[in-house]
Amino acid sequence: MGFPPVQPNTIVILGAGRFGRLAAKRLPVRYPQASLIIVDRDAARLENLQGTPPAEKVEQDALAFLESLEPTKDLWIVPAIPVHVAWQWILCRLQRIGSAHPLPVPVELDHHVPHPLRTPTGTLYASFADFRCPDNCPEPDKICTFTGKPRQGILHQHLARLSAPGHRIHVLRSRQMAPGVGGYTLDQMQEILRAVKAHPGAHILATSCSCHAVLDGLAWYGKGVSIQESGPPAMEDSRASK
Length: 242
Fold this sequence. Notes:
Layout: E1 10-14, H1 18-30, E2 35-40, H2 43-47, E3 56-59, H3 62-66, E4 75-79, H4 85-97, E5 98-103, E6 117-118, E7 124-127, H5 155-160, E8 167-173, E9 175-178, E10 181-185, H6 186-197, E11 201-208, E12 212-223, H7 227-230
Parallel strand pairs: 1-2, 1-4, 2-3, 8-11
Antiparallel strand pairs: 4-10, 5-12, 6-7, 7-12, 9-10, 11-12
C-alpha cells in the first residue's frame, strides 16, 4: 500500500461531488493534524458538505486555485473532478511561456496497457480491473480487494517501463491516502513540469495508482516559440521516466 512518504500538512480536495465528499470524510480520520481545503466552483456543492469534518471551503475553479499554491512536499492534492488535473495544469503552465497543445496518446500504447479505454480526444484510460471497484478499496499490495485473487501487477510501475517512439513518458504516482482516496503533491507536478520544459517535443503524462491510470499527450515547442514559427515538435525516443 502506497501511503504518502511525507505526512500531509495541508490537503486540497478538488471537487465537492460524491468522491470529494467521501475524501472529506475519510482523510481527517487518517490525518487529523492536517488542514483540509475543499475547492469547487459550485457553491451548492460546497453547502452540501454539511456533516463532514471542519474544512476551509473555497468557491473557485479547481485549476485556477492550484495556481495560487506554493509547492511543498507536505501539500497534497486530491483530484475529485472529471479532469486529468496534472496534465491540464502542466499544459496551462507551458502555454504561459511558450507554445504547447494537446496530443492524442499514440494508439500503439493501447496494446501495452490493461483494459484500454480511449476517448475521442485521444485520452487513454487503463485499468487492471474490468469491474467497478469498491469506493473504499484500501489498495492492498498483493491481493485484490474485490476478487480476492493476487494482483495482476502494479500499474504505475508497468507504465514507467513503457516506451513510445517519438515521445517521452512521465508517470505521476497517485498514492493511497485513505480507503478509496488517492493523491499526490504539487511538488511532484512541478518536477514533471521541469522535465517537460527541458525537452521540447512530444510527451505523455500518466497519472496512475496501483490499479488505474489516465494518460494524455502534449506537444511542447519551447520557451518563447510560437506554434507558427515552430512547425511540428521535434520527436525523440526515450525510455519512460518519472
